[in-house]
Amino acid sequence: MTYIFLLAALQAFFLASLLAAKKQKSTADRVLMVWLAGIGIHTAIYFFHFQTGSVAPLILNLNAAFPFLQGPFLLAYVAALIGMRDRFGGTDFLHLVPFAAFIAYLSLAFGAGTFGLWQTAQAKSVSIFALAPFFTALLLLSVPVYIGWSLVLLRKAGQVLGAPDLPSGFLWIRACIAGLGLIWLAAMGTFALGNANAHPHAVFWALTLFVYGLGYLGLTRTSIFREPQLEALRQSLPPKYRKSGLGPAEIGALHRELTAFMDAEQPFLDGELSLQTLADRLGFSTNQLSQVINEGEGCGFRDFVNAHRVREACRRLDADPDTPLLALAMDCGFNSKSSFNRAFRKFTDKTPSAYAGSS
Fold first, then answer.
1. What angle do the packed helices 201-220 and 167-192 form, to 10 degrees?
2. CA–CA distance from 311 to each of 46, 298, 320 (Å)?
3. Cα→Cα distances 223→13, 18, 39, 227, 285, Å
4. What are the helix (H) ranges across the chain?
5. Which of 81, 127, 209, 286 is the most buried (most CB within 10 A)?
6. Cα distance between residue 33 and residue 48, in whole Å
7. Distances from the Cα of 70 to the Cαs of 62, 64, 94, 247, 249, in angstroms?
8. Dist CA 299 CA 12 (whole Å)
9. CA gap 125, 295 in Å, rounded
10. Alpha-carbon distance 195 to 216, whole Å?
11. What is the mean pLDDT of each run of 10 residues along the chain (359 residues)?
């Protein structure tokens, strides 16, 4: 039965290594990589303990604190994945208070100092359920809070983006949320059935299913482990949902640099232009570029790029009203005539043919 720990550990380390191998890692990639590595270490320690019985009590009891990090990891990952966090600091670390409090509790309960904890904890269970009713309740109550919080963030992103952008990216986020929910249900079942002093196998079966489920979705249905993921979310989200750390003066300077670059290089003529590509060429982060566009132009990335494309199309139609519209659309960076017509009408209140007729 204890080999479920080994299965979870191996899969978690494998997925973490895939993320570590990515050449261009986002903040979300790094959060997920550390989260998976933590799960791998967490389950590996229990595997070696139940197989050999030689793991030091200090390590076992500190390892019992890891569940307090599951909720914060989920929230941090969701926030980073949808573009609401480019970095973490300050009040974000308040989420670690329960984890730190539990460590402090272990130190006080089992001896003042590291050696006291090491020596006197030997008779204690490695399950958090048996260590303190208060912390058990705190853990079981906090997980639904983090799940609900993550769903609120997801809903906000969905309201900004609209339905067309939801299916593939949001499936992955929902899988992460549902996976933690599965682990929580297993923990609640273990606690409710009175198995607090026994090893909670159900929790680790749920944890193993969670890790393998992420691996399956990540490798077969999304590009989480191979490409920059969910860029549509990050490039469309307004600055009020993100923290890039830019002040007004910095935004003004970067906006002038962006404007000069767009006029000189005309990157919008590339139909495959993305926020990541433009940010890389400018040396900005994607969140910085989004904030500069939103606050400097009053629109999102797509409208910003399309406005430049329409302006260029108007300039060419002014010079030659007989230019074939399909060829014009492609030359100006649009991937279809329908998208060209929609954008042209949005920014000029005319169709391209009507504009050409008036030139």
1. 170
2. 62, 17, 14
3. 18, 11, 21, 5, 20
4. 3-21, 27-52, 57-63, 67-81, 97-110, 114-120, 133-161, 167-192, 201-220, 231-236, 248-265, 275-282, 286-297, 301-319, 325-331, 337-348, 352-358
5. 81
6. 22
7. 15, 12, 14, 33, 38
8. 40
9. 55
10. 31
11. 80 88 78 91 86 76 84 89 73 90 76 41 45 77 91 72 47 81 82 57 80 76 51 50 62 91 94 88 85 86 92 92 91 91 92 84
Could you tell me if 258 and 305 are in contact, meaning their C-beta atoms sit under 8 angstroms apart?
no
In order of 107, 130, 145, 306, the CA distances from 123 in angstroms are 15, 12, 33, 67
CA distance 306 to 293: 13
Residue labelled with tokens 């997980």:
143
Enter the pTM of the model.
0.59
CA–CA dist 77, 92 (Å, integer): 12
Unique residue bearing structure tokens 């949320």? 177
Structure-block tokens of residue 240: 């009020």
How crowded is the C-beta side of 71, counted as CA atoms within 13 Å?
A: 23
Q: How far apart are CA 136 and CA 188, in angstroms?
A: 10
